[in-house]
Write a structure and sequence with these properties.
Elements (H helix, E strand, L loop, with lengths): L1 H24 L2 H28 L3 H29 L9 H21 L8
Helix pairs in contact: 1-2, 2-3, 2-4, 3-4
């Protein structure tokens, strides 16, 4: 199971890598579309992973885990905004390419952190 999920994450990361390579060659609208697709892939994986983990927990633990994920989503938005505001002199456009790419990166990092914390992979990427 650990190997299967690690292999799946490798495949997902490769697919996302292909999207990223395409957006480097594309115009800004295409790059934004690729970044949105990347974010959707990582968001879908995060939803799948949280469902998988919740199913392994008791009721009280699953409720606490669900709340921790809701809190993480709020914190992700704040962290992304703060990171980008620091680079952009305080101005953050939530519809920008950089905002979408940063959300995707944070989401990917959360997927790997949860997978590692709950024993689905050996190490974070």
């Amino acid at each position: 199971q650990e190997e299967d999920y690690a292999s799946w994450l490798d495949q997902l990361a490769a697919e996302v890598g292909r999207l990223g390579a395409a957006d480097k060659k594309a115009d800004s609208a295409s790059a934004k579309g690729a970044a949105e697709a990347e974010l959707r892939l990582w968001d879908q994986e995060l939803k799948y992973l949280t469902t998988l983990i919740s199913g392994r927990l008791g009721d009280a633990q699953a409720q606490a885990f669900a709340q921790s994920q809701k809190d993480w989503l709020k914190a992700r938005e704040s962290a992304v905004t703060a990171e980008l505001a620091g680079r952009a002199g305080g101005v953050v456009y939530t519809d920008s390419l950089e905002y979408t790419q940063t959300l995707a990166r944070y989401t990917k990092d959360q997927v790997y952190a949860l997978a590692k914390a709950y024993g689905l992979i050996e190490g974070a990427k």
